C-alpha cells in the first residue's frame, strides 16, 4: 500500500507514518519544515517540503511520491494550525494562519488526493479535525470555528466522492499527548480532560480509516461530554465555554 500524510513530520502525523511503515507500506510525509524529522531510518519513507496552503506544492509532492508507484491508497491530512483565542486575544497573523491552514489547506489536500483517486476509482481520504468542532455556538473560538468548517468540508467531499469509490473519514479527537500540546501548555497537561497518548490515538485513527468510518469522535468520554454540551442553549454554552477557556489558561 501507498500512504501519503500531509503534516506528517511531527505529532500524530508522524506517529501514523511509523505505524504504516511498521506494516511494510510505502509512506510519504510532508510539512513546511522537513528537518523536524531528525533521522530517516526507514527504507520506505519519503519526506517532502510542502505547504498545504499551496495546491501546486502538495500536488507536486504527491506526483513525486507516486512516480514509481501504481496508486495512492490512503491520503491523510494532519496539517493544522492553532493559536489561543481566549477573550479575543489573537493577532491578525495568527488568525490568518489558522484560516489558511485549517480551511484552505483542507480543501487543497482533498483536491490533490481527489484528482488522483478519481482516476483510480478507489482510495481513502482522512482528515484530522477536532472534537471542539462538533459544538456550534456564537462565541466559539476561531480555532473551533475553523475545525467545525473542516468537518463540514469533509462531509461535502464524502457525499461527492462516494460514487467514485473514494471513502472520506473525519477524525475529531480530544486531547492527544503530543510534543506540540505540551509546548503550548508549558508541559502542564493537568487541565486536559480525558488525555490519551499518541499510540492509542494512532490505533483509533488507523482502524477508522481501515473501516471507512465517516466520522470518529474520541475518546468516548470526551465525545459524550461534548454531545451533552451541544444540547444546551447557545447563551449558556457561551458562558460555560468562555469560563472553561479562562480557567485552562489560569486567567
UniProtKB/TrEMBL annotation:
Identification of the protein by name: NADP-dependent 3-hydroxy acid dehydrogenase YdfG
Species in which this protein is naturally found: Chryseobacterium ureilyticum
The keyword Oxidoreductase is annotated on this UniProt entry: yes
PANTHER family, sorted: NADPH-DEPENDENT 1-ACYLDIHYDROXYACETONE PHOSPHATE REDUCTASE
InterPro entries: NAD(P)-bd_dom_sf, SDR_fam
Pfam families: adh_short (PF00106)
Keyword Oxidoreductase: yes
Keyword entries, A-Z: Oxidoreductase
GO molecular function: oxidoreductase activity
Family membership: Belongs to the short-chain dehydrogenases/reductases (SDR) family.
